[in-house]
Structure formats: C-alpha cells, structure tokens
C-alpha cells in the first residue's frame, strides 16, 4: 500500500473563532486539538529538560543546607504569689 501524505495545516487561535462562526465543528475540534497538543508537547519537553538538569547536577552545584542555631529565650520570672 502506498502511504498517504497528510498535509496538516498550522492552525492559529483565530481559526477556532472563524470555524465556529462558519458552523464547522469538526474543523474547530481539529484546530483546537492541534493548538493544545503543541502547547502540551512544548511544556513536557521543557519540564523534561528541567528534571534532567536537576538529576545530573554535580555535588558542587547543590548548596549544602546551613544549620541555623535557635536560642530559646528564658521564661520571665513572675513575682505573683497565689
């Protein structure tokens, strides 16, 4: 079988509005699906790079936790008697 080349149009957000006004629900769905899938794919690619960068940081790149000394204040003495 010969493979069919599918030409996909690059949709813009304005196309969703145009197709809605022209009462073409299938085209609205196609345009929305393409636009949202592009955004999801880009977001996942960025998140993947972020996670991999954090995983492979060298020990020098990771700051060591600093210890903070907390001093307890003494309770004030009261002169009341019961």
Task: Explain what the structure shows.
The chain has 82 residues and is mainly α. It has a domain of 43 residues. It is built from two helices and no strands. The longest helix is centred in the middle third of the chain and has 31 residues. The chain is elongated. It starts with 12 loop residues before the first helix and ends in a 27-residue tail after the last helix. The model has no long low-confidence stretch (mean pLDDT 80).
Residue stretches low in confidence (pLDDT < 50, at least 5 long) are none
Indicate the structural class.
mainly alpha
Give the count of helical stretches. Answer: 2
Q: SSE order in H/E notation?
A: HH
- Helical coverage, percent range: 40-55%
**Strand element count:** 0
Mean pLDDT: 80
Rough outline: elongated
Sheet-strand content, in percent, reads: under 5%
Question: Largest sheet at a glance?
Answer: none
Give the C-alpha Rg: 30 Å
Distance between the termini: 100 Å
